[in-house]
Amino acid sequence: MSRDTDNEFPPELRALEAELASLVPRDDGLDPARLMFLAGRASVGKPRATVLVWPAAFGGMTVVATALAVLLLLRTAQEVIERVVRVPVAVSVDAAPSHEQPAPVTAEHEPVIERAVAKSSSAVSASERVLASLPWGQGKQGDRGERWKTSYPDLRDRILERGLDSWPVPVSDGGPARPPLSQRELLDQMIQEIRQPTAS
Amino acid sequence: MSGIGPETLKHLLDDHGGPLVLYARQWSASPEDVVQEALVNLIQQEPPPENVVGWLYRAVRNRAISSSRRLGRRSRHEAAASHRGEPWFQPTDGQRLDAATATEALGRLPIQEREVVVARLWGGLSFNEVAELTGTSPSTAARRYQSGLVNLRERLAVECPETPTTSSRPS
Predict the structure, then answer these.
(1) CA distance B25 to B3
(2) ipTM reported for the complex, 2 dp
(3) Which pLDDT value is given to residue A1?
(4) Cys staple from B89: which of A23, A172, B45, B48, with CB 3.0 to 4.6 Å?
(5) Cβ neighbours of A13 in B, within 8 Å
(6) Within a domain: A143
(7) Is B52 near chain A, with CB under 8 Å?
């Protein structure tokens, strides 16, 4: 129910209403000039949404860039795990000296290796004689398993993995200790074997 | 650009400046500052409110109550409002109601009735607008208005005419 009408009021109240309405409220405290000045200044300086877009975008991007920089500085370094993967491959002794681990000798690979050794005895003898010249390699030529263990790749891998402490201790046969051959002597010996492949 | 231009602001000030000051006087000791801030705030509204006058009264009311609470003297000011020597109305010549007497009688009304009487009688707001302004129903606003008039009549001791001077009540 809407009572937005004066018709429901008693007439004496309507008369009083008219009497009161004749009074004019004071507004002498309002300064129109100052109000216009303040209104003009407010209309000029009021913030607009379009003006705030770029500062807001700048602030947001700055926060994102700072967060990414902090994350970059606090990021833990990825640990690099190196490991040696041994791939069993059948290698020929004729090939150039390989740095890979020799294939394990199995029943399947054994004939191939044996034939390769028979065909190129001169090439094999050059490297094996170097190893055989080592003091601890003496007396091990007949054992094929021990021969692989003391081969150059095997020694290299062992030293790289375990350090110099893994260098095999020379086997003493009770005789007088023979000084190791120098590089020059080993080189001369290899050259001599190459020039006279059948001499040995 | 704002929809409230200087001309509109001048018209608002001429037509509603006094009633707005009187309305703000019900709570605030510095009603002119409250009205001035509300008008400046109106300039910053984009888009401008549909009911500018209603918006102004609401803004004045909120600011006046806030300033009164901030100063911690709302009830004290309301109680002593009628005892201030400054009249709320311009001096009248040859009228039955004296400005000082009307100020005294109006200041002694309860704040709920006085607010409705001022907004309705001098502000020209409808009861729906008054109800929306005060957070009540239109019926409550009308009841408070009538009660305020009755109290004013008793305090002013206005002699009412024997016959109504305006249109008769509907049957």
Answers:
(1) 28
(2) 0.77
(3) 40
(4) A23
(5) 146, 149-150, 153
(6) yes
(7) no
Query: Domain holding B67: CATH number?
Result: 1.20.140
CA distance A198 to A122: 8
Quote the tokens at residue B87.
């009249």
Number of domains in chain B: 1
Instruction: Please indicate, yes or no, if residue A163 is contained in any of the structural domains.
Output: yes
B49 lies within 8 A of chain A by CB:
no
Q: Which helix (H) or strand (E) holds B24?
A: helix B6-25
Q: Which of A35, A46, A52 to mutate to test the interface with B (most CBs of B within 10 A)?
A: A35
Residue B149 belongs to domain spanning: 6-156
Q: What is the pLDDT of residue A172?
A: 60
The number of folded domains in chain A is 1
Nearest CB to A19; choose among B97, B126, B166:
B97
Is A191 inside any structural domain? yes
Domain coverage including residue A152: 110-169+182-195
Give per-residue burial for A52-73: e unless 16+ CB within 10 Å, then b: eeeeeeeeeeeeeeeeeeeeee
- pLDDT average, residue stretch B105-112: 90
Smallest CA–CA distance, residue A72 to chain B, in Å, is 44
pLDDT(B49) > 60:
yes
